[in-house]
Amino acid sequence: MVCAQLHHSFIATATTATSATVPARCRCRCRGRGRARTPAPRLGAFFSSLVSSSRDRGEMGDDGPSKGSEVVVDDRHSLDRKIDAIRKAGPQKLQVIADFDATLTRYWINGRRGQSSHGLLQQGNPEYNAKRQQLYEYYHPLEFSPTIPIDEKTKLMEEWWEKTHALLVEGGLSYDDIKKSVASANIAFREGVVELFEFLEERGIPILIFSAGLADIIEEVLRQKLHRSFRNIRIVSNRMEFDNDGRLISFKGRTIHSLNKNEHALDMAAPLHERLGDANGPVDDSVSVKMRTNVLLLGDLIGDLGMSDGLNYETRISLGFLNDNIDGSIDSYRKAFDVVYLNDFPMWGVLELATQLLPAEAT
């Protein structure tokens, strides 16, 4: 079971979401495996207490929601109906779909902007780092241009990704480069991510991590930062193929970019979870995953809601992580997502919601 020890300092500072908590060795059966771990707060009514008057908090006065509650729910009655529907359908119908960067990982780390899984990569030849940066500076503004038609923008994104991948191959990227890049990167998971993964793994709930980045880097981040694998996690992203000397020679499957990062990508992606998965393989293949028609979706951009496109879902609860520009974005986020977490909020709220969706009698 996931640790449910009370961490009173977290509860006392839950509305700031930035205060450090003191690591403690867990004495319960939370699979701590001897690691020092910041224990989860007592989950009980934690989530409910934070959002009990969320409509009012989302419509606060001059200070705005960014200076009040860290959790915003625009329509609590709709959320309650969805929770009830997913509970009644049972765990066999549920899957979790999550973005990686700035969703599972922290947006700010010790006052510095956390790196993305793609941005942290440093090739052995710095000339190719500069070339990839030039591509970024050209294509990134086009990605968010409001005047470019979507079909044209899709072609531009395919062009950008393919050129970037070609530079990685041409520049002689090695798997050692990936390991060194991750080791020196400014990247970290939100508090509570491990506990959430363990809770879902124990209940056989698949987690699909969708990313337009590089699967091999994400797996290395999981390995170095979490120090364990999870059978239920699948990474839907661009996967590399290396030769016997560990040099990148090609990419497997079709390119997954920022505009086609959705459940259709399951059919496009190469075999998943090869390095990190359990010897017995992931819990579900793409066919059985598509049979799980209730979705808990996590993302930091409104566009991440498209990750469930291609899945004929029955009930979806969407959780948005609004990390920056809160006053300017909160209105659109609270209308788009069922729950919005502000200011780099930790994953405890998601874990509490998961306990509501998967009560103890379902284990």
Automatic annotation (TrEMBL):
Entry EC no(s): 3.1.3.5
InterPro entries recorded: HAD-like_sf, HAD_sf, Pyrimidine_nucleotidase_eu
Catalytically driven reaction(s): a ribonucleoside 5'-phosphate + H2O = a ribonucleoside + phosphate
Pfam families tied to this protein: UMPH-1 (PF05822)
SUPFAM superfamilies recorded: HAD-like (SSF56784)
Domain of life: Eukaryota
Keywords from the UniProt entry: Hydrolase, Magnesium, Metal-binding, Nucleotide metabolism, Nucleotide-binding
GO terms, molecular function: 5'-nucleotidase activity; metal ion binding; nucleotide binding
EC top class named in words: hydrolase
Record-level GO BP terms: nucleotide metabolic process
Family according to the record: Belongs to the pyrimidine 5'-nucleotidase family.
PANTHER family for this protein: 5'-NUCLEOTIDASE (PTHR13045), 7-METHYLGUANOSINE PHOSPHATE-SPECIFIC 5'-NUCLEOTIDASE (PTHR13045:SF0)
Protein's name in the database: 5'-nucleotidase
